[in-house]
Amino acid sequence: MKGTELKYEDLEGLFKGLLDKKAVDCLILPHKVGNNVAYMMATDKDRIEPPVPAIFAPSFGVNAANIVKGWTIPEKIGIVAKPCEIRAAVELIKLKQMDKESVLLISVDCSGTYKNQDYADHYGEIGDWVDSAKIEELKGKGIARREACEICDNRFADVGDIGIARVDGEKVLVAGITDMGVEALSALELSLEDKEIEREEEKEKIAADAKKKEEELPKASSVEELEEFLRDCIVCKNCRDMCPVCYCKECFFDQPLGNPVSGDLLNLAELRGAIAVPTNQLMYHLTRVYHVSTTCVGCGACEDACPKDIPLTRFYPVIAKKVQEIFEYVPGKDVEEPLPFVTYEEEELEDKLR
């Protein structure tokens, strides 16, 4: 990779430069709001705030890819976000919800995140970055990371067009991952050199820990157990609305067959003798998990959005990961890799069916 090491305080100039040199027309990046973190879209370079500590803050609110879903206007947008958010944006490009030439994807290292409310409530203890020792210390105090982050094994800034990786001390490595990323950094007249960060050992540990955490999660092994798991679901569809890769223009569950009301409900009741209310509860989730099974990046936005606090991370990302393993597909890693369900290879699943 072509990159350069910068001090934390130099990142402000980097982001301002992307706007000033017209590498992008606008930039979405996190910023601090009191003790919390939110996203802002800036078109004026003078509105760019010092990005550290916000870009590394272990807080998760909305998946940034959801902000630009359906970005079909000619202006080019830059997104500075966590790897799961950048991976979701890559999947949206593959799903034709964005053009890859219209976005500059900038990923940053992530240590796992806390819900926004938890982060705000315990900001003094959590701070602007957490390492493994601090994560365990906080857990001992009852302050736990989001379950989606506990089972995530893709936390490094090695996806998108540009990666911003933490190195020793108060420095980051900013590197171009794609030609578009190198071109953008070159426009800022940075001195780019061949750079690599050796983190294989750390990656293996993260992957092993994530797998162990996933295996410890409760499992639903029957329809009855799944119905019990989803018992409190009110089919509000918040999980769909906040999912960055759920994108249909007209959802089946907003149509009469998928969302029967009034007389339609009565007709169903008369036809079957009795129906559960709300209707289509199980069908809704099974349809959704099929819909996102190859593109789910495990960000956990679905669980955060649930008003009934159903631990949906134990359903969507866990099932999706099993499907992705079958197809040997990691969503969001490579924009050129075709989606499994739109390609065909003869006998590609032969060994899986034996």
Sheet/helix structural class:
alpha/beta
The side-by-side strand order for the widest beta sheet comes to: 3-2-5-6-8-9-1-10
What composes the largest sheet?
8 strands, mixed
Order of helices and strands: EHEEEEHEEHHHHEEHEHHHHHHHH
- Total beta strand runs: 10
Number of domains: 2
Radius of gyration: 21 Å
What is the helix fraction of residues, given as a range?
25-40%
Sheet-strand content, in percent, reads: 5-15%
Distance between the ends: 41 Å
Which residues form runs of ≥5 with pLDDT under 50? none
Q: Mean pLDDT across all residues, rounded?
A: 92
Q: How many separate helices?
A: 15
Q: In terms of quaternary structure, what is this?
A: single chain
Account of the protein in words:
- The chain is globular, with a radius of gyration of 21 Å.
- Strands 3-2-5-6-8-9-1-10 form an eight-stranded mixed sheet. It has a two-stranded parallel ribbon with strand order 4-7.
- The protein has two domains: 2-216, no CATH class; 223-353, no CATH class.
- By secondary structure, it is α/β, with parallel strands linked by helices.
- It has 15 helices and ten strands.
- The mean pLDDT is 92.
SSE arrangement:
Blueprint: E1 2-7, H1 11-20, E2 26-33, E3 36-42, E4 59-60, E5 77-81, H2 83-94, E6 103-108, E7 114-115, H3 116-121, H4 123-126, H5 132-140, H6 147-150, E8 162-166, E9 171-176, H7 179-187, E10 193-194, H8 200-216, H9 223-229, H10 238-242, H11 263-272, H12 281-291, H13 301-305, H14 316-326, H15 350-353
Parallel strand pairs: 2-5, 4-7, 5-6, 6-8
Antiparallel strand pairs: 1-9, 1-10, 2-3, 8-9
